[in-house]
Design goal:
Number of helices: 3
Length: 529
């Protein structure tokens, strides 16, 4: 059965949308023309370079269709070189699509043989991306989709797919390379099929910024590859003090590396760095090197006391030696982490390996030792304990099976402390008796999402001032359900009559309005500003 959420998205765009533009906004379309003025969808620009040059600081670029960045006249490679360097962002710009399946940017054009990185974020630049796909970005050495060399990136509901960093100088960050940054935030993003020598999806060389935060929330990393030097999905080599890396409600699965760190590699990072891994699922990642190279999380030799906090998470079934040997958490170090440096709570940590075949006393690090280092070194699928199900390839998450001990093993306070009450799919976590499911997905299986049914005539949905209005020709029972683009319900209100109004002053961005009138329902996309 096809996913109902996908059906809803299709119906949304058939039903149309309402967009509210400000004076700072410009429009960009695959069918546009740079001789247009770019001030409306009907007069959209054709190239990203023109749109960036025209948009005001703090403005929005609305994108329709897929734009070939590699063919942009402002991004052609210099003579004798093969790669475009990507469009530079040196101001505050938001780039907004309506559907990541239909809108975004491409770094490779088979017809023109164009090759390019997609974006460069420089000092003072803030790049905000929403509801887009960045695909086929190709760069020399650094970041196939984005090279961050100052400034910040904020991405929500964005796919980074099939991007590559290649070259002869240890190419890093298949999708994203970070040299300097004031902060990074990724929410409901998918990193899939990206490749580099190190950091298949993202490589962080440094932030050059004390106390910067990098945050991944409800993200999935699937089938990324580090071909030589580790970090199949993520590689962190941070030199600045006091940085925080937060990975929440996320899934890292089927990533691989030929070097160290099957999915996450932490190397040469100062003791003041803190990694918080909360309600995250890290399973089925592969290191092709031998024992001690790290199939799941690797803390490397040069790390002298990095702080690792793992809460409500599943880290099992990760292997090295081409799948023969279990390694879920690996300390390839000459020191044993102190209690404050490794804190694990309400989690499944399958196999723990410390170089020299030393052991770490689990009593110091796990508030329940039931699921600590329970897997043998020789991989045995029958010994897996979490009850995780196979990867759902439509939603890129691992649900839990019925009867799994992980369904109620989580401690709700870890999510409540950071004001999160949903899972990776936007489902509300009930937190019954102070508990929740461990891992990225709450409960059993995959929810059906929003159902798109018939669209009765005589119903209008529009924004007026700071209110969203539902108006019908005839009086009846009206219910409005408002969902985020990821499928999370954010509002529900009902009335009897011919008009329903809802205050939207606290909302901004793209939402899905599901309207029910006397048993009939349909959906419409709205952009609230």
């Amino acid at each position: 059965m096809k996913n109902n959420l996908l059906k809803a998205f299709i119906a949304i765009f058939l039903c149309g949308s309402t967009l509210f533009a400000s004076a700072n906004d410009v429009y960009l379309s695959a069918t546009g023309n740079d001789s247009n003025d770019g001030t409306a969808a009907a007069t959209a620009y054709a190239t990203l370079g023109k749109a960036i040059a025209s948009v005001s600081d703090g403005g929005i670029i609305y994108v329709s269709g897929f734009i070939y960045v590699c063919d942009d006249p402002t991004n052609l490679p210099p003579d004798g070189e093969y790669y475009g360097n990507g469009l530079a962002i040196a101001k505050n710009v938001k780039i907004q699509g309506s559907n990541k399946k239909t809108d975004g940017f491409l770094g490779f054009n088979e017809s023109t043989y164009g090759l390019s990185r997609i974006f460069r974020v420089n000092a003072n630049g803030v790049l905000t991306l929403n509801s887009l796909t960045l695909r086929d970005g190709l760069a020399f050495n650094k970041g196939g989709a984005i090279h961050v060399n100052g400034g910040a990136v904020v991405a929500e509901n964005v796919n980074f797919e099939d991007c590559t960093a290649e070259g002869v100088e240890q190419p890093a960050g298949g999708a994203i390379m970070v040299d300097k940054s004031t902060g990074l935030s990724f929410k409901n993003c998918l990193f899939k099929n990206n490749k580099a020598e190190k950091g298949g999806a993202l490589y962080m060389q440094d932030t050059d910024n004390t106390s910067a935060e990098t945050r991944f929330e409800a993200c999935s990393f699937v089938n990324n590859e580090a071909s030589a030097r580790g970090g199949g999905a993520l590689f962190f080599r941070i030199m600045a003090e006091g940085n925080k890396i937060n990975i929440i409600n996320s899934t890292l699965s089927t990533n691989r590396t030929s070097g160290n760190g099957g999915v996450i590699s932490i190397y040469n990072t100062p003791a003041s760095t803190t990694f918080n891994i909360i309600n995250t699922t890290i399973v089925n990642n592969l290191g092709l090197s031998g024992g001690g190279s790290g199939g799941g999380i690797l803390v490397g030799e040069n790390d002298k006391g990095v702080n690792l906090r793992i809460q409500n998470s599943i880290i099992e079934g990760n292997t090295v030696a081409s799948g023969a040997t279990s390694e879920d958490l690996t300390y390839f170090t000459s020191y044993d982490p102190a209690t404050e440096q490794l804190q694990i709570s309400n989690s499944y940590i399958g196999n723990v390996y410390v170089s020299g075949a030393r052991t770490i006393n689990p009593v110091c690090y796990e508030n329940s030792t039931l699921y600590w280092n329970y897997l043998p070194r020789t991989y045995d699928a029958l010994s897996l304990a979490s009850g995780i199900d196979n990867l759902n390839t439509e939603r890129n998450v691992h649900p839990l099976k019925a009867g799994s001990s992980a369904l109620t093993y989580g401690n709700a306070t870890y999510l409540q402390a950071i004001s999160i009450n949903t899972d990776a799919l936007g489902q509300v976590r009930a937190f019954a008796d102070g508990k929740c499911s461990v891992g990225a997905v709450e409960g059993v299986g995959i929810p059906s999402g929003i159902q798109a049914l018939d669209a009765p005539a005589g119903i209008a949905v529009y924004q007026k001032d700071n209110q969203l209005v539902v108006k019908t020709v005839a009086s009846g029972n009206i219910q409005l359900q408002l969902y985020s683009i990821s499928g999370q319900k954010v509002l529900q209100q009902s009335t009897i009559g011919s008009e329903l109004t809802v205050t939207t002053s606290a909302l901004q961005g793209i939402y899905i309005a599901k309207v029910l009138v006397d048993g009939h329902s349909y959906v419409q996309k709205v952009v609230i500003k």
